[in-house]
Design goal:
alpha/beta; elongated
Length: 289
């Protein structure tokens, strides 16, 4: 056991030294990349993971899901162990991909993720959808506001981000009187679409990815402009004691590449508009030394 441990430590030290000095490129033979993420992002994370495996055949991507609170508690528990043992490879998490920016910020504040490793990879904007069979539909949110005959299915602003964003959009388009008696409130996106398809509403407001998942039943008739809706941004970051930082850097760079962006768009998400974010490899390597 002592010999095996010494061999492993020596191998890791030589690999880190070689990559740091630029003598060798990252080698990930037989590696497992573990991503802890929100179940609400299962579709993009699974798609990105499969694509990354295709371009990195020696890497296996594993996904573990949990709520924001579960992820934070899990990481806190792991990092409160012996940091030295955790650093050389006993920690099982490489990348954290929660369902919102707030948790990433909290993790940065507590030093649970590496500084400057936050990588925005997707955005979600609100869209207006109607049943696929409906011919005469409003072509914009402004037109929706003007036609008082149309009843709209929306998510509860007290329960979900979708509801909060929808409420903000409705306020931006018209006052309370505009929507009085016209809103059919559901718990979440699934409930909103169910209400629409069951005839409780004529139109519905959801995020783009929600509409794509139900593309056989609904169609998008309008997308919220930047003046009405500030898209939700989704980011991922490297866990501070990631067992293989070179592999993490490779994945974080990959999710901002052209192939990954095409996958994200196909799923109904947008791409962050602030340009491709390069992982600060010099900073991360300095952390390793």
């Amino acid at each position: 056991m002592r010999i095996a441990t010494t061999y492993l430590a020596t191998r890791i030290a030589l690999l880190v030294m070689g990559v740091t000095l630029g003598l060798i490129g990252p080698v990930f033979g037989g590696e497992t990349l573990v991503i802890a993420g929100s179940p609400s992002l299962a579709a993009p994370l699974e798609a990105l993971g499969r694509a990354f495996e295709t371009t990195h055949p020696d890497v296996k991507v594993q996904l573990h899901y949990g709520s924001g609170l579960d992820l934070r508690q899990m990481i806190a528990t792991m990092q409160n162990r012996d940091g030295t043992k955790y650093f050389i490879g006993s920690g099982p998490i490489h990348v954290i991909a929660p369902g919102g920016e707030e948790l990433i910020t909290r993790l940065e504040y507590r030093n649970y993720v590496l500084p400057e490793s936050r990588t925005p990879y997707a955005t979600a904007s609100l869209v207006l959808v109607v049943p696929e069979s409906l011919v005469d539909a409003p072509s914009s949110f402004e037109a929706l506001a003007q036609d008082v005959r149309i009843r709209i299915a929306v998510a509860d602003p007290k329960l979900t981000v979708l509801g909060q964003k929808t409420d903000e959009l409705l306020r931006a388009v018209g006052g309370a009187e505009t929507w009085k008696g016209r809103l059919d409130v559901a718990t979440d996106a699934r409930g909103v679409l169910d209400h629409l398809m069951n005839g409780k509403a004529d139109a519905a407001i959801v995020f783009g990815p929600d509409a794509i998942r139900e593309a056989n039943r609904v169609r998008v008739v309008a997308a919220a402009s930047g003046k009405l809706d500030r898209p939700v941004t989704y980011s991922m970051a490297m866990e501070r004691f990631c067992p293989n930082r070179a592999l993490c850097e490779e994945f974080l760079s990959y999710v901002r590449g052209a192939d990954a962006e095409a996958i994200i768009k196909q799923l109904g998400y947008g791409v962050p508009a602030n340009g491709k974010k390069e992982v600060n490899k010099d900073h991360l390597r300095a952390e390793r030394e």
